[in-house]
Write a structure and sequence with these properties.
Structural class: alpha/beta
CATH class of the largest domain: Alpha Beta
Number of domains: 2
Radius of gyration: 20 Å
Number of strands: 12
CATH superfamily of the largest domain: Isopropylmalate Dehydrogenase
Strand order of the largest sheet: 2-1-3-12-11-4-5-10-8-9
Distance between the termini: 26 Å
Order of helices and strands: EHEHHEHEEEEHEHEHEHEEHHH
Largest sheet: 10 strands, mixed
Helix content: 25-40%
Length: 340
């Protein structure tokens, strides 16, 4: 039986280190894959290639699934974000960002049991990147919202909620001001909601949502929203559970899925062996579930929970002193002791 091909973008900065740790943990549980390593990010730019070379996009499209480390987009200079380019080129319209409290991790809401998912539209809104300068003193950005784009991400959120046994889906918007664009999103939300009578459907204005998240976050279950709001709200939720180092992410399309660490490439600590691979590892767990490998996903997830709860082998961003390798070895010891 041939191994499942998985495209791999190691990324920049700490990317290769956390990718190596993540793949080692996956393989320790018996997961076998044909890892296809691809170029992207700064490494590609330094070779005179685009941040996301066409060959990389084509390969991911052909394979259908990828694991991605953090990439760096240089500021200014006309460089296009590899992340945005990848999502648009492969039509990865749903960005799924769980935010769940891990035991033993210090944070402002330690002791609370937060378990929510942000489903962010991933290809439209201001991230369409349509900007014009009609006058030296006037810059304009065009917010693109389409009815089909709203429908598919909203339906994905409800389907995911039903599949996972979640009970509430909340639309996050600014329709009181953006009456046409956000109004369309909200209109489609309440058109689709009756198809899922077992799930409570409601809505909240984005600024109120942010206030509610930092005062009573446990009230929320699934938040579905547009691209820009989702970018901001998902990072806020990551902060509630300990930071971006614990924030996994998946970019889902009809024919392709890319699982990634959503934090930055942290070049200041690259090569020092202290990076935290948890976000990428949790993203890999999402990948396993996407592949139907729930037993292996549970095996690794439970091991991460035990390591965090024990607190003796945490990396420095979580208040510990463990190196990347020490953390990796401890997770493997917890989930596959024979492999240590």
């Amino acid at each position: 039986m041939s191994k499942r091909k998985i495209a791999v973008l190691p990324g920049d900065g700490i990317g290769p280190e956390i990718m190596d740790a993540t793949i080692s943990i996956l393989e320790a549980t018996g997961f076998e894959a044909d890892w296809v390593f691809l170029e992207g990010g700064l490494g590609a730019l330094e070779k005179g290639l685009p941040a996301l070379p066409p060959e990389t996009i084509d390969t991911i499209r052909e394979i259908g699934i990828a694991l991605k480390g953090p990439t760096t987009t240089p500021k200014g200079g006309g460089h296009v974000s590899a992340n945005v380019q990848l999502r648009q080129a492969l039509d990865l319209y749903a960005n799924v960002r769980p935010a769940k409290t891990l035991p033993g991790v210090k944070g402002p809401f330690m002791g609370h049991k937060l378990d929510m998912v942000i489903v962010r539209e991933n290809t439209e809104d201001l991230y369409a990147g349509i900007e014009i300068l009609p006058h030296p003193d006037l810059a304009q950005a065009i917010k693109v919202i389409t009815r089909p784009g709203c429908q598919r991400v909203i339906r994905y959120a409800f389907e995911m909620a039903r599949r996972e046994g979640r009970t509430r889906v909340t639309a996050v918007h600014k329709a009181n001001i953006m009456k046409i664009t956000d109004g369309m999103f909200l209109e489609e939300f309440f058109k689709i909601a009756p198809e899922y009578p077992e799930i409570k459907a409601d809505d909240i204005i984005v600024d109120n949502c942010c206030m509610q998240l930092v005062t009573n976050p446990e009230q929320f279950d699934v938040l579905v929203t547009e691209n820009l709001y989702g970018d901001i709200v998902s990072d806020l939720c990551a902060g509630l559970v300990g930071g971006l180092g614990l924030a996994p992410g998946a970019n889902i399309g009809d024919n392709c899925a890319v699982f990634e660490a959503v934090h930055g490439s942290a070049p200041d600590i690259a090569g020092k062996g202290v990076a935290n691979p948890t976000a990428l590892l949790l993203s890999a767990i999402m990948m396993l579930r996407h592949l139907g490998l729930n037993e292996q996903a549970d095996q690794i997830a439970n091991s991460v929970l035990r390591v965090c709860s024990d607190g003796k082998c945490l990396t420095m961003d979580l208040g510990g002193k463990a190196s990347t390798n020490e953390y990796k070895v401890e997770v493997i010891r917890q989930c596959a002791p024979a492999a240590v």
